[in-house]
Design brief:
Elements lengths: L4 E2 L4 E6 L5 E7 L9 H11 L16 E5 L1 E2 L2 E2 L4 E6 L21 H8 L15 H15 L5 E9 L2 E2 L8 H6 L7 H17 L5 E8 L13 H10 L4 E6 L10 H4 L3 E4 L2 E4 L7 E2 L2 E2 L4 E7 L9 E4 L5 E4 L10 H26 L1
Antiparallel strand pairs: 1-2, 2-3, 3-7, 4-7, 5-6, 8-9, 8-10, 10-16, 11-16, 12-13, 14-15, 17-18
Length: about 350
């Protein structure tokens, strides 16, 4: 099976299934001398954990990261950095009663068409459990980025039909103090009310994760096919349940005139700076030194308890009600995953730039 690796210089390869023994990854190209901050990594893992977010799956995993190569006394050596996270609360039995059914909007049918077999135990590699390895690698990437004072912040900007106002001024502290990672308490309470109602109905909803990168240096990105914007798009669209990516003004830019959308320049104390940032911090696929910002849309969770029509693997029509432990909305748990994938992209391009220079 190909497609399990991401990045060029800072390259992550992941492995493991939702209800297998463990999930994990190997990071190739991690610079030597990086201190593995286990407390920071544990905090990042906790942010993704379902037990930490309301209206999420009731699955409870310890998510303890075990580094098995590439470190000496928790300092990276430059060798491949390998790690595993054991699955301690897997319940494959939850899926036995519909192992021959094709779940609506899941990867069951397409996986069978490609490989001739599919892992019915929560979807195997298609499960969001796979993102654990991304968060670990993203935490390592953040530790590297910290040397350059680059920081990333993602937050919930929309759930269902409830969203923050356009151009909302984000309070970073408020993000981490909110159970849905929404920086506006009033909006968050409305979102929570919606999720509570959907839980009663046995249904789900989607939403949007917004993200911005601060202190990113100018010059990251490789024309033509390795643009920073293109790699960010690929990274975000690789996250389970993601459905759309836009940066800067995105689709809203179609209603603007060129004179409105163009980013202008100013000379402040012999330094060229931008007086606007409609391009989301990138031009020509290369970072311009301004804040990078973008949105990622996520679909409603496919695993719902409402009865739906489907077929079994032989094509016989039937009904299905997906039981087990599932989120009502993936958006809050996707916040740290979006940050992690952003960190992988920025770190990879940062190392490419340093290699060139």
């Amino acid at each position: 099976m190909a497609g399990n690796s991401f990045g060029q210089i800072f390259r992550l390869t992941t492995f493991g299934e939702s209800h297998g023994f463990a999930v994990g990854g190997v990071i190739d190209g991690c610079p030597p001398g990086i201190k593995i901050d286990t407390t920071f990594i544990a905090d990042e893992m906790k942010r993704r954990s379902p037990g930490h977010i309301i209206f999420s799956s009731t699955r409870k995993e310890d998510d303890k990261v075990e580094f098995i190569s590439g470190t000496v006394d928790f300092i990276t050596t430059g060798a491949p950095l390998a790690f595993i996270v054991k699955n301690t609360d897997q319940r494959p039995s939850d899926y036995y009663h519909f192992k021959d059914l094709l779940r609506p909007s899941h990867a069951d049918y397409t996986t069978i068409q490609k490989f001739g077999i599919f892992d019915h135990r929560g979807g195997g590699r298609a499960s969001a459990r796979e993102t654990v390895a991304r968060v670990v690698a993203g935490a390592i990437a953040k530790l590297i980025m910290a040397k350059y004072k680059i920081n990333i912040h993602a937050f919930t900007s929309c759930i269902g039909d409830i969203s923050l106002k356009t151009n909302y001024k984000v309070d970073i502290t408020a993000i981490y103090n909110d159970p849905l990672y929404c920086p506006d308490k009033v909006v968050s309470l409305k979102m929570q009310k919606l999720l509570k109602q959907l839980r009663k109905e046995g249904d789900s909803t989607g939403g949007i994760v917004s993200c911005f990168v601060r202190n990113c240096p100018a010059g990251l990105g490789e024309p033509v096919f390795d643009k920073l914007s293109a790699d960010l798009a690929k990274a975000m669209m690789s996250i389970p349940a993601s459905k759309g990516f836009e940066y800067g003004e995105g689709f809203a830019s179609i209603d603007m005139k060129g004179s409105e959308h163009n980013d202008s320049f100013e000379n402040k104390k012999s330094k060229i700076v931008f007086s606007s940032n409609h391009s989301g911090g990138m031009q020509g696929g290369i970072s311009n030194g301004e804040d990078i910002y973008f949105n990622v849309a996520f679909k409603p969770v496919s695993s719902i308890s409402k009865k739906q029509k489907t077929v079994d693997i032989k094509g016989n029509e039937t009904e299905i009600s997906v039981t087990g432990r599932h989120d009502i909305c993936v958006v809050p748990r996707a916040v740290p995953v979006v940050e992690a994938m952003t960190a992988l992209v920025i770190t990879d391009h940062l190392l490419r730039l340093k290699t060139l220079k």
